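--- STAGE predict ---
source: upstream dedup step, 1 unique chain passed
mode: sequence only
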Amino acid sequence: MGAISVGNGLWMLLFAENWYQNLPAGLEDTGPLNTHFVHDIGLVYCIAGLAAFYCAAQLHNCKAIHIGLALFTVGHGLIHIVEISVGLLPPSHWTIDFPLLFIPAILILAITPAVLKLQTKAAS
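--- STAGE serialize ---
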């Protein structure tokens, strides 16, 4: 997750137009390219990727960072679910968003109890 997030973030920061045109995620459904916005979110993806690397290296000391990473990942997925559900994104996004958005959110939610348990044991 760390490598994919950092890679995606760097692509967004360095080549925003290329990212917008070539990421197979139906980006044109979200509106026209806004390079500044792509750069802003690219920075967030870089930070999220670094946070994932930190959590992997510091399993007993990553509770707060893991929670922040989970809030971003799951929150991003929930925004897409709401937008698909109310018609702001076409139904094709259920399939488009599944591999790169919903699976990471499901995975981070799945490991959260274990991360929190590790933190509790480390504090004992």
